[in-house]
């Protein structure tokens, strides 16, 4: 079997379900040893790890709330210990996937909405990228892949202003950071999903018909379709792709 990511450590934030779980499974199938990070669902993370191992892959679950400085520190420390310490001091592939959204009119935004969106969707992405870049620059190879959103480039419906602000920030950060790290052997890219059927965005939810109408393929995306784009960016042959945000959005932004 062709496993281009053998002997690479991959960390996928927020991978106990949804898009993150599919990314973890796909990178493990491609040979990476994968840290399955989660904040609140140990059983789900364990199920993701079990499924990866059953398929012959390597994975370990790590609980850590990446929206906090302590959580990020604990996550990196646990990654160093994982897999018997085999990857101590390394981090080859970072997928910043964990994210949150609170739909609703801006004038009715709840107390703490800015912190909840920006601490997780933006600050965690920046701080974990910083730690990853330090490690990757030592070995001269790395992949930082940020899961933004089609809402990070276009705004087809109201009620998402704070989330959109956070995802535009991820889009800009991805492109700007690529300029600094490219010469060090580290690529920084993003994947911007359109509507994908997960608990965050169920295809039978109230906004679904409007979202589907904005795509040209006429449906919600599937988590493996996002994971496929991440696997492309993680592949050693993608070394010449840098500062790119790939829209996997069913034609939403065309
Ligand atoms: P989801 O179904 O809500 O899953 C979110 C994942 O993140 C879960 O595994 C959750 O695990 C974890 N998580 C939440 N808060 C965390 C924290 N503070 N620290 C660590 N892990 C945390 O979301 P999704 O739909 O798969 O979305 C994944 C990413 O894609 C997000 O960045 C989202 O903005 C983006 N996206 C999604 C869509 C879509 O249509 N689904 C579209 C565009 C972009 P626990 O519950 O265990 O904490």
Automatic annotation (TrEMBL):
Gene3D superfamilies: NAD(P)-binding Rossmann-like Domain
PROSITE patterns in alphabetical order: ADH_SHORT
Family from the record: Belongs to the short-chain dehydrogenases/reductases (SDR) family.
A GO biological process held by the record: monocarboxylic acid metabolic process
Pfam families recorded: adh_short
PANTHER family linked to this entry: 3-OXOACYL-(ACYL-CARRIER-PROTEIN) REDUCTASE, 3-OXOACYL-[ACYL-CARRIER-PROTEIN] REDUCTASE FABG
UniProt name for this protein: 3-oxoacyl-[acyl-carrier protein] reductase
Organism: Chondromyces apiculatus DSM 436
